[in-house]
Amino acid sequence: MAGVVVLDMTDSALAVTLLTFWRRAAQLALGGFAGFIGDRLGRRTTLILSQLVIFAACLSLLLLFQNGKLSAWQITAAAFIIGAAWTVDAPARAALVPDLLGNRLTPDAMLLEALTHSILLGAGAYLAGWLLDYYGTAAGINALIALTGLNIVLLVWLGRLQLPQTTPVAEGGVWNSIAGGIAYLRGNPGLLTVVAVSALINVLVFPALSLMPVFARDVFDRGAIGLGMLNGSFSLGSFVGLFLTQRLRRRLSFQAIFAAGSLLQCVAWVLFALAPFFHLAMLLQFLAGVGQAGFYTMRNVILLSSSSNEMRGRAMSTVSLSQGIGLPGELVTGSLAQTVNPRFAVSVQGVIAAFATIAVFLKAKSRQPANP
C-alpha cells in the first residue's frame, strides 16, 4: 500500500524502493540485538511493545494525511520505525512457538503459522488494492490501524496464559550475546548455510517486491488493482506451496526443501521480469510464492529445530539481520529500475542470485562428511 502512495506522490521507482531500503536499514541496525531484547524483556512483552510502536506509527500517518501534511519522506520514516518494530517482533514470535508447543510440534506449528500468514497476506493484498482504488489512502491506513489494534488485544490475552519457563536466558551483556550468537553459527555449518542463502535472497531477489507498484502501474498498466492481483497471486502461491511443503517433508529433508524453494524463487522472479503480458506475470508470481513457502518455512524450522533452547532467540534474530543485509540490494534495484528499466533490474539480479545460491549449496555439500 505504501509503495502505491509514494509512487503517486513522487513518480519515482527509486523512491518506492527506498521504503524497503529504510525498513531493511532498521533490520540491519537492530537485527543483532533482537534476540537479546526478546530474552531480556520477555517474548510476550516484546511482542506487545513492538505492536504498540506500529500502531502509533500508523496513527501518526493518518493524522498527517487528514491534516494535508503527509509527504513521501514521512511515509519513509514510518517504514523505518515499523521495520525496527518488526525486527524485534519476528524473532520473539518465532522463538515463542517451542515454549508454547514444545520442539516436537514446532515444524507443524511453523507450517500453520506460514499458512495463516499467506492467507492473510493474500487477502490483505486484494483488500489494500481495492481500498486504495475506491476509497483512497485514508481507508488503507485505517485498516492497518484496526488490524494492529486487534493484534495488541490478542497479545494481551496471550500474556495472561501461564507458560512453563523452558528457555534459559543467557548471562552477560548485549555484546556477549551477539558474539555468542555469531560463534554458535560459525560452529554449525547447517545453520550458517541457511543464513548465507537467506542473505543472498534478501540482497538480490526480495528487492523485486519493492518494485511491484512500478510493475503494476508502469510495466503492465494495471494500477492499484493490478498490484493487488500480483501480490495476491504471490500469496496464493505461498498458500499452495505450504501444502506441497507439508507433503514433501515426509519424503525430503528440511534442507532439501529449503534449497528447492530458494532456487524456485530465483527462477520465477527472472521469468516474471521478462513476462510479456500481465496474466503470465501473475502465474509466475504464483510460482515465486510456491518457492517462498519452502524457503520461508524451512528456514525457520531449521533454525528453531537445530538450535539449543538458550540460543533459539539469537538464532532467529539472524533472520532479521540477514534481511537487513539486503539494504544495498534495494538501492541497486531502485537505481537500475530508474536508470535502465524494472525488467532489467529484477531479471539480472535474479540470475545472479540463482547461481550464487547454487554455489553456496554445493560448497556446503562438499563440506559434509562422506557416508561410511
Helix percent reads over 70%
Nearest-integer average pLDDT? 78
**Model regions low in confidence, pLDDT < 50 over at least 5 residues:** none
Helix/strand/pairing class, anyone? mainly alpha
Name of the level-1 CATH class: Mainly Alpha
What is the total number of structural domains?
1
Task: Indicate the proportion of strand residues.
Answer: under 5%
Specify Rg, calculated over alpha carbons.
20 Å
Shape: globular
CATH topology: Growth Hormone, Chain: A
Total helix count? 16
Largest beta sheet, briefly? none
Oligomer: single chain
- Number of strand elements: 0
Account of the protein in words:
The chain is an all-alpha fold and 372 residues long. Helices cover 84% and strands 0% of the residues. It is globular, with a radius of gyration of 20 Å.
List keywords for this structure.
372 residues; mainly alpha; Growth Hormone, Chain: A
Topology at a glance:
Elements: H1 2-10, H2 13-41, H3 43-66, H4 72-101, H5 106-134, H6 137-159, H7 174-186, H8 189-204, H9 207-210, H10 212-219, H11 223-248, H12 254-274, H13 278-305, H14 312-324, H15 327-339, H16 342-367
Write a compact overview of the structure shown.
The protein contains 16 helices and no strands.
